[in-house]
Amino acid sequence: MSTTWRLLPQLLLPLLLILFQLQTTEAIWFPWYFHRYGFEAHSHGATTKVLPSGKAEKTTPISKSSNAGSATCPPGYQLKERTPATCPPGYQLKSKSAACPSESRLCDDNPLVMQLARLYVVSPERIVLLLAQPMLMEACEEISDVVDHIRSATSNCFISDDNIYGKLADGLKYYKEEVCDGGADSSSSNKKRCASLNEAHSCLKELRTDMIECEAPADWYEQRNATKVCQTFNDVLDCYYTRGAMLCGLEAARHLRSFAGDSMKRSMIHACDVNRRLPRVMDPMPVITAASTNSLNVLLASSFVSLHIIDIFI
Ligand SMILES: *[C@@H]1O[C@H](CO)[C@@H](O)[C@H](O)[C@H]1NC(C)=O
Choosing a second label site near 100 at 20 to 30 A (CA), which of 3, 138, 178, 293? Predict the structure, then answer.
């Protein structure tokens, strides 16, 4: 019932327009139309008043044979011209069978820009920077909302492959899957990376300024020279790794670099490979102090670390 009432304002205007334009003989698809949206005509003379179904007086049987054309667009509508504008509002969103053609329509990317702006996502690096938000899980709620809005804004149109906002949206979706949703659908190594990034969050927060300093000049990823772009891409990754290792330890740095590589790759038009060689860090932070400054935690952490040291030597 709630969807019916939410759709009501959208439906009334086109219905009224159609009622005025069509003679009753042309209105044979009305029962189908009403039925589809939870409305019912009292008789097949389509000019009668309508009531929401399930309310009262649900007596008239629906004529199924009235729908001679496709099952997704009212007959007559589709025949005029095959553009999305000929379908009733809200129609394409519901039906996946592409009888109302949408495959040829480019998305307006303004809604994407607006949504990405909510999170200050203006570059591939800014998606990685979300790891340094003060509250990781609260940020995830907002990220999830942004991803939902982008999905509905692009559900009946397509974004070209070279649209940078589309790419940034892909990168953000990856962040949601891998950081917020725990790498749920991916390999166990990604799950481990997600756990590690969450564990290191108290330190990654402190890394925020360093991460901003690692960012490349504006629009670097939009350059035409792929060699140059990919060089910069790897410079940024190595910077994350080096700064991360100095502040949060090698393990957190490795996962930060790995995640940054995967998410930035998805946020860019050029396809870049991550260098296999890790940069050398002279004085990485030992794991113990990175874990916490709280004395009890340090105590716990030190016993944990000594176990790890044993691990290493075995
Ligand atoms: C791209 O950049 C690289 C390195 O900066 C340079 O050697 C190469 O000539 C450039 N390629 C083109 C097509 O400009």
Answer: 3
